[in-house]
Design a protein that fits this description.
This protein is α+β, with helices and mostly antiparallel strands and 93 residues long. The chain has a single domain (2-91), classed as Alpha-Beta Plaits, CATH 3.30.70. 37% of the residues lie in helices and 35% in strands. A 4-stranded antiparallel β-sheet has the order 2-3-1-4. Strand 2 (35-43) and strand 3 form a beta hairpin.
Length: 93
């Protein structure tokens, strides 16, 4: 099992847009083979600093989803409101 931590910094005034699109993306991700679970977090001191922690059965499952056209299409609205590219860390325990 692998954990994927995604860190995002939103532009000001884009929080509602982010929440709307990230919910849609996470709902779709629940149907992806190999996806186990996902949790969203906000930095206590900065509501525009967001994290998503996902569990995947295998690294290959994550990589397949990460590079899929469907994911890129789902996340296009989110990527357009980021101050900088999202940071992805793949972790294991």
């Amino acid at each position: 099992m692998v954990h994927v931590l995604i860190e995002r910094h939103l532009h000001e005034q884009m929080l509602n847009t982010y929440i709307e699109h990230s919910r849609k993306a996470l709902q779709r991700t629940y149907l992806v083979p190999g996806f186990i679970s996902g949790e969203a977090f906000a930095d206590i001191s900065d509501e525009n600093h967001r994290f998503l922690l996902c569990k995947w059965k295998t690294l290959e499952d994550w990589r397949r989803w990460a590079s899929s056209g469907e994911r890129l299409e789902l996340l296009a609205p989110i990527h357009s409101i980021l101050k900088q590219p999202e940071k992805v860390s793949v972790l294991e325990n």
